[in-house]
Fold each of these.
Amino acid sequence: MSETTASSALAGLDPALNAPKRLAIMAVLASSSSTDFGFLREHLQVSDSDLSKQTAALEQAGYLTVHKSGRGRGGVTSYQATKAGRAAYKRHRDTLRALLG
Amino acid sequence: METDEHRLREQLLAADRGEAAAWLSWEPPVWRHTAFFTAWTIGFALNVGLGGGLGSATVNLLLTFAALGFLGVERARAGTYPDGAMPPELRRPVAWSMALFVAVVLTTWALASTIPWWLLAPLAGAATFVAMWTYSRTYAAACVSVRTRLGVAS
């Protein structure tokens, strides 16, 4: 791949998804209708606070929405990828594939 | 440069693992899914066998709600519900299971007017049991292949 081609391909990488944990979160959400906090925590092997921080950043970017049901210990927090989030994730992943051949 | 490539490969692997995660979490425990869908088909066979034609609309509605309720409980148990592109290894077992289930339901409905309900129900139940059992085993084997390819611990 030439330098010019590589740099134009790199432009397809989304800065918000360059962090591996955020990319992994969006990968899970892009392949599910909705996913609970506990599932993401287990998949990523991260702490509650770390996951909250990563999802907050993605929510701020408009890539996911948060739904809370119930209260207290029985409450469940779940996440859904937005249309923009799915598109951004797909673009980022396709760029990775193109770059790596 | 090599570090950049390594970083990008790590990202792609994280993406592939993430995309497969919801599908892998739906690996069916053989007994639960098999038992539910066997009971569901027996209920359907009794409805069309005893009710004639399409059977009672109320019972069909109840069966639909039961199936949706079961999927809802399973979604809560798994913490996710897979949607979108599935890992290639899972395509065949999922397609076969859908085709088999539809075939069993349609055959049950077609036979309802020719054989008695007391024969129809166990036959439909047995066919579903075999189909679901086979599907569960095939899906589980495909999940092992996906985990091996992606280097994911079970």
Amino acid sequence: MELGQQFLQQMVNGISLGSIYALIALGYTMIYGIIKLINFAHGDIYMVGAYIGFFAITQAGLGIVPALLVSLVTTGLLGMLVEKLAYKPLRHAPRLSVLITAIGVSFFLEYTSMYFVSPTPRTFPQVMDNVAVNIGGLVINGQQMLILGITFVLMVILTYIVKFTNTGKAMRAASFDVETAQLMGINSDRIISITFCIGSALAAVAGVLVGIYYNSIDPLMGIMPGLKAFVAAVLGGIGILPGAVVGGIILGVVEALVSGFISSTFRDAAAFAILILVLLVRPTGIFGKNTKEKV
Amino acid sequence: MPANEKKIMLKLDDVHVYYGAIHAIKGISLEVRQGEIVTLIGANGAGKSTTLRTISGLLKPKQGKIAFEGQDIAGVAAHEIVKHGIAQVPEGRRIFAEMTVMENLELGAFIRSDKEGIKQDLKMVFQRFPRLEERKEQQAGTLSGGEQQMLAMGRALMCRPRLLLLDEPSMGLAPLLIREIFEIIKDINKTGTTVLLVEQNANMALSIANRAYVLETGRITLSGEAKELAASEEVRKAYLGG
């Protein structure tokens, strides 16, 4: 394969992987936007989503779309439950206490899952035929098309919700200024709960898609993608939705290029090098602004 | 009708508020009657904003009663207080800078679902503040200070409040703009909205208010007709620059 073509091929792979990072990063960034918490349990929510999808397909015999829906709804509810039990009682506590709690929730989800589903990796069932489109030597396989298609649809729905619905406006208002949002009659507890629900649902979809893409899931699968999605969110500017998407895709592409042209051993190093670079050069991320107050 | 014959709308009775260990409000009692403009004046840190924030539910009183139209609202959550008909224009305006002017106004009507009524009130707000209509698609953060104050007031009016709480509407504005804002407050009051106004600019506040309370380190030290207070030696010395 010539160099140019190999480059394009890695771009396709990178964008697919990046879409998954983007789905997880969206939840990170939404939750950060509203309660200023780096939810370190978010990667584990993604893992639970993958398992729910797995059991929906293998035990209930569902097809891919119904399985995605089941995982999306159940995991969304789980996200709300986690928020209610673990974070809500700490609403007025120092931010560090909430952060430590998030790490605790992360371990809790990982090891409870291990207890119930065993630590052994599971082989994700083959849910679609091995189709692939070949455009002048550039191969896009069925899984990649599925990932890109579903990510695109979810982004459109999310944009619609955030931009045009009352709930979305309330979410934006609350993430800008919780107190003033309350003065408008917005129930911030409810909005926080909905934010966890949507963020967790997106992560669940990412989990199922990764299962389909890599064929294998395990209870610790959320750690690395969770950290990577955090990098993506910071890269794009934490708290900013389009930033999470752009950050996720850039990260995916960089990883694919590094694996393709240098060595896949350096893939993770590249991701974290980006984090260090962003924090050194532009800590507010690509879309972040330095907030100034008008007097 | 003399002021003291009008119906009492808001009544605070021996209200105490703490910020952590700090006893910020030490037993305030005051009342606002229907149709009045009442002002709460006092130096920086006297507890004026704290009092407003307690009425609107952002802070919970440790002790004391707050009654609005006969109903006890002490300790009710802020997002529920709005539904009783109390809107607050917070100190520093606190507009949603990253949203459009229109979205800000829509959020003001968040608790309402009567589309027709909202449309009417939007028209009313645009009539009162024509500059907001010109800029309705603009990001609120790009407005000037005076326009932001107008937006904050328009946003509060969008829930059709019976009682409007205004926290330092003159803050950071040029004298000419301050006069304009106070004219608008008078006008809002004339169309039937009762106003409780917190101000450091005591001169302006006393000039439009019916009655006034003077707050000093968490306690009310003086109260009475605005005109009388404006003329009193004590107030002149302390708050009106001699």
